[in-house]
Amino acid sequence: QSTWATRMAHLSFFLLFAAVVCSAGAVDRYDVSSVADLWSRLDAVPPTRRAFVIFCSPWCTDCQHYMPQILRAVARCAPASATVIFATVSTSKREWRDANNPWRKDSRLRISWTPTLIEAGKSNRLELQKANEARLLTFFR
């Protein structure tokens, strides 16, 4: 099986797992693949709910590595009334590195690394790397 197919299978598994994790509580879960869809979805979140965005890509080995930990943190730590949005920022490394990638160009998002987690409307932000993976457990609190 090709590396691409393996990575897509892993990401599909994680997104399916995310659906199960998020459906276990009152967490609303959405998937978006464009900046416009993300802003539209965030505009629809009621002001009484906290909204978290997880930026990832199917080709990204860091995303594959950290997605199980991210999903466990969502299940254990996200408020029951949270909205969690999974944003796919590119389908290839070349697309991600393109200077015109809309996710990288959006000055409101400032995405330069995947996976990145943000809390909408707050300064709560985490570019997940080995050096700060312990912070994942407190990110959703």
Summarize the structure.
This protein has 141 residues and is of the alpha/beta class. It is built from six helices and five strands.
Question: What can you tell me about this protein's structure?
Answer:
With 141 residues, this protein is of the alpha/beta class. The chain has helices spanning 3-23, 35-43, 61-77, 93-97, 102-105, 136-139, and strands at residues 28-32, 51-56, 83-88, 116-119, 125-127. Strands 1-3-2-4-5 form a five-stranded mixed β-sheet, with helices on both faces. The longest helix is centred in the first third of the chain and has 21 residues, at 3-23. It is globular, with a radius of gyration of 14 Å.
State the main characteristics.
alpha/beta, 141 residues, 5 strands, single chain
Main structural class: alpha/beta
What gap, in angstroms, lies between the N and C termini?
39 Å
> Can you give the mean pLDDT?
83
- N-to-C SSE series? HEHEHEHHEEH
> What characterizes the major β-sheet?
5 strands, mixed
- Sheet-strand content, in percent, reads 15-25%
Any idea what the shape is?
globular
Helix-strand layout with pairing:
Layout: H1 3-23, E1 28-32, H2 35-43, E2 51-56, H3 61-77, E3 83-88, H4 93-97, H5 102-105, E4 116-119, E5 125-127, H6 136-139
Parallel strand pairs: 1-3, 2-3
Antiparallel strand pairs: 2-4, 4-5
Helix pairs in contact: 1-3
